[in-house]
Amino acid sequence: MTDTRMRQGRAALAFSFLVQGVAFALLVTRIPAIQDRYGISDALLPAFLAAVPVLAGVGSVVTERVVRRVAPSLVLRWAQPVVLLALLAVGVGQGMIQVALALAVFGLAVGALDASMNMLGVSLQRAYGRSIMLGFHAAYSLGGIAGASLAWLGAHGGWALGVSYAPVVGVLLPLALVGSRWYVDAAAGPVGEEGGTASGRGVAFAVLLPFCLVMSFAYIGDSTVSNWSAKYLQDVLGSSEQTATVPYNVYMVMTLLGRTLGDLGVRRFGAAAVVRAGAVLAAAGFALVAGAPGVAAGMAGFTLLGLGLCVLVPQTFAAAGRIGFEKGGPAGSDAAVARLNVFNYVGFLVGSPLVGVIGDAWSYRGAMLVPMVLVLVTVGYARSFEGTGGRYGDGHERARAADVGRDGHRL
């Protein structure tokens, strides 16, 4: 594979991550408007919201089976337009059944999209022989910021959902289809002694368990910030309603910054060190939030959370993909990524209700200590992110252990 082809594949995949960030942000930030449009009651809303990650998990599991027969790039090429069209359908539907179907399609397609995007990212990083995975997730964060900003404009202007969604879908859908021409599949690199010749046999769940737990803990932390930061600042720390909207924006900006610089950290210090540092920073952020005497300290805590949590998910996909490759070649890598992706949604489903139940039963300050403990547990699993001797890329000696996260994986 030529360097030009890999660069094209990298740019196309980064754009796909960005588009998905825009689409997901446009959905979740307009939930109140969706609820109002379709008359969804407060009692029924949690069922609608829970259905999306549950079906996304189903979509990820199905994708694991589909990519045994077709290339992940083909799954991504068609899953992304379906996600965008489902988003548009949410905005223009006329009744409860229609929005339920649109959200169901959105969830299933998102699962396929997330799994296939990360499969291609892991594969490309292996071909590069150095850490580039965090850059893809930085593009997702940038898309999330753009999508949230567009949603704010729509809400501020009083635009109907269809009016907000249609121009975005109209621009991004054809661009995503054109960009999909340059996706790169199965960048396996040279055959290595630890699995390059394997035929894609399955990876035991026990091997993936540390990564599944880290993924779940990271998303419990992320969902805590996205669902509870505004309420915490306003109800616990006494901020104004306007100020309460700031922590999540700060969190997203710090996530973008951390992921933009994170690949350099992996190349310099290794994957395990970056995971440890991220977990410690995130735990410190939750501790600061829980003990914050005022709004400024709370803001500082959410800032630390963005810098800490942002590195965990990309690194976890990369490390699990490396293990899968060692056990079963490119097909094993794809299977590991698809299985791990399910725990993205597990963490998302568990995080928000967990904090809410503890907050109501005890206190919201105390509730912030639970994700703090969980991300600290990640420090104990950091050793799993170290390499086992596999090296991907072109085999040059310059791909030394530190440059590829001490494992040659596609972080």
UniProtKB/TrEMBL annotation:
Tree of life domain: Bacteria
Subcellular location: Membrane
InterPro entries: MFS_trans_sf (IPR036259), MFS_Transporter (IPR051788)
Keyword Magnesium: no
Record field: transmembrane: 12-31, 43-62, 74-93, 132-153, 159-183, 203-221, 273-296, 302-325, 337-358
Keywords: Membrane, Transmembrane, Transmembrane helix
SUPFAM superfamilies given in the database record: MFS general substrate transporter
Membrane topology category: Multi-pass membrane protein
Keyword Membrane: yes
PANTHER family named among the record's database cross-references: BYPASS OF STOP CODON PROTEIN 6 (PTHR23514), INNER MEMBRANE PROTEIN YBJJ (PTHR23514:SF13)
Protein name stated in the entry: MFS transporter
